[in-house]
Automatic annotation (TrEMBL):
Example GO biological process: amino acid transport
Protein name: Probable branched-chain amino acid transport ATP-binding protein LivG
GO molecular function terms noted in the UniProt entry: ATP binding; ATP hydrolysis activity
UniProt-listed CDD domains: ABC_Mj1267_LivG_branched
Stated role: Probable component of a branched-chain amino-acid transport system.
Region feature Disordered, mapped onto this chain: 1-33
InterPro entries found in the cross-reference section: AAA+_ATPase, ABC_AA/LPS_Transport, ABC_transporter-like_ATP-bd, ABC_transporter-like_CS, BCA_ABC_TP_C, P-loop_NTPase
Domain annotation ABC transporter: ranges: 35-284
Sequence ranges of Acidic residues compositional bias: 1-17
Pfam families linked to this entry: ABC_tran, BCA_ABC_TP_C
Entry keyword set: Amino-acid transport, ATP-binding, Nucleotide-binding, Transport
Sequence similarity: Belongs to the ABC transporter superfamily.
One CC-aspect GO term: plasma membrane
Length: 286
């Protein structure tokens, strides 16, 4: 690695890698993959919703997760993100096990998600929704209110967050809605808001649960453009979507679930030509 690709801390003498997202992806090992799921299972009483699911998601990728209704996709998402505690199996984020952690603990480690039905804070403005999302906020307290130096820290941080929130709203082209109450937005605008709020958390891995459901074609194109822009910057996405054209045209790798298990994995071409997938899900028309 050249000197231009490495910064050295003068005090510690340790080198900080400056590799690009593409270079990091090429160097990754099974223990350093952004997301790795091994033998994941979830039972609800006598019903097995997820049955020994294993897969990996590579750095900087847009990976699709598809399957018929009831295949276990949403339950898999819920187990990965801590909404449900798995009955069995393990989930790893950047080689660190996160199985069974609370959703906020997983989010603090850099794995966040959106929901099929956007969950905005309806009685707060769009701008306030974004400013609430970042981690490690100082916040107000009795001590900070009487000690000028500490209060200045809060004010400075809030100004920085406000500026960043405006930049994020501009990126998603919803800055004109900043002062609107989130509950007044259209379905598509709420999806954009949810994506913007996710970005404010500084995530490494983003799980998208049907982000295009109920979105008109214009906003759908805008959302996909933003997702590809973020992927080019090194973000990693796992993407549940029922629109096969979207999946086939945008995802480098596709995972197919059926009856709680992984039925097949591969490129769009692999999946199109997989007879098991055609029979179980895609149909002959594909």
């Amino acid at each position: 690695m050249s000197e231009s690709e490495t910064e050295v801390d003068a005090e510690s003498g340790e080198a900080e890698s400056m590799d690009s997202p593409v270079e990091r992806a090429a160097q990754q090992t099974p223990t350093s993959l952004p997301l790795r799921v091994e033998g994941l299972a979830k039972q609800f009483g006598g019903i097995t919703a997820v049955d020994g699911v294993s897969f990996e998601v590579e750095a900087g990728s847009l990976t699709g997760l598809i399957g018929p209704n009831g295949a276990g996709k949403s339950t898999t998402f819920n187990c990965i993100t801590g909404v449900h505690e798995p009955t069995a199996g393990n989930v790893y984020l950047n080689g660190e096990e996160i199985t069974g952690l609370a959703p906020y603990e997983i989010a603090q480690r850099g794995l966040v998600r959106t929901f099929q039905i956007a969950r905005e804070l309806s009685e707060m403005t769009v701008l306030e929704n974004l400013m609430l999302a970042p981690k490690h906020q100082l916040g107000e307290s009795a001590i900070r209110s009487v000690l000028p130096g500490l209060r200045d820290d809060v004010v400075d941080q809030e100004e920085e967050l406000r500026e960043r929130a405006w930049e994020t709203l501009e990126f998603f082209e919803i800055d004109h809605l900043a002062t609107e109450y989130a509950g007044t937005l259209s379905g598509g605008q709420r999806k954009l808001l949810e994506m913007a709020r996710v970005l404010m958390t500084d995530p490494e891995v983003v799980l998208l649960d049907e982000p295009l459901a109920g979105v008109n074609p214009t906003l759908e194109e805008k959302l996909l453009d933003r997702i590809h822009d973020l992927r080019a910057e090194g973000y990693t996405f796992l993407f549940v979507e029922h629109d096969m054209d979207v999946i086939m045209n945008n995802c480098e790798r596709i995972i197919v679930m059926h009856q709680g298990r992984v039925l097949a994995e591969g490129t769009a071409e692999d999946i199109r030509n997989n007879e098991q997938v055609i029979e179980a899900y895609l149909g002959e028309d594909i």
